[in-house]
Amino acid sequence: MFRALTTAATGMEAQQTRIDVIANNLANVNTNGFKKSRAEFNDLLYQTVRAPGTYEAQGVTNPTGLQVGLGARAVSTERMQSSGELKQTNNPLDVAIDGDGFLQVTQQSGQPAYTRGGNLRMNQNGQIVTSEGLSLDPPIAVPSDATQLTIGADGTVSAVVAGQQQPVELGQIQLSSFTNAAGLNALGHNLFVPTGSSGVAVSGKPGEQGRGTLMQGTLEMSNVKVVEEMIDLIAGQRAYDVNSKVIQAADEMLRTTTQLR
User: Are 190 and 234 within one domain?
Assistant: First the structure.
C-alpha cells in the first residue's frame, strides 16, 4: 500500500515537469525562431518478487514472473527542430533560415553562440547585430551612406554605396550546423551553445553541404502549435489527476486496514 503512495507521487511529479515544459512552449509562441521542447519519460526500477523463468513446484516454469514497478521520472527535454512558419516583414535586415543551420554571433564574453532569430539590426557603428546587440560572426559593417541593402540567399550582403553605380559586397553571413542540434544547450535570449552531445559547429556558406538558405525580409516564427500544446496540456492535467486519485484510494485502503479489529 505504501508503494502505491510513492509510485503515484512520482507520476504526479513527472506530469508536473510535462506541464512546465508545455508552459514554456506556450509562453514563447511569439518568439522568433523558437523551437519547442518535449518532455521524455521512462519507468523506474522494478521490484522482482519472482523472476520470470524460475522453477515452481514439480518442475513447472513460471512463464511471466512477478515484478512491481516503482513509478516514472522525467529523463530529458528534447528540442524539436522543425521549421516554424515564415512571416514576411519587408524589413531588409530581417532574415529567415529556410532549412538547417544557425546564425553565429559573439557574446559579450567573446564566446560564440548560435541563434535562429533573424531579426537583425544595425548598431551605432553600422555593424549588423541581433536585436540584443550581439555582433554576427564574422562581423559585417554597413557604411553610413549605403542604400538598397541586399542579403542574398547565399548570405552575401551588398549595398549601393555613394559614388558607386554597382552594388558593393559588404560581407558574407555564414550558417553553422550541428550533427545533433537537439543536443545544444539553451542559454535563453534565443541563444544556444554546443555541448558534447551536439557536436562541434560546422560553419559555411548558406545553401552548401545541407545548410539552409536565407530569405531577406522574412522572419521564422516559433514552431509551437497552440492547439497541439493545449491538447498535451489537457492530457497532462488528466494524468496528474489520475495519479492523485491513486493516492486517495491508497489512503482510504490504509484507513480501512487500521480500523480492523
Answer: no
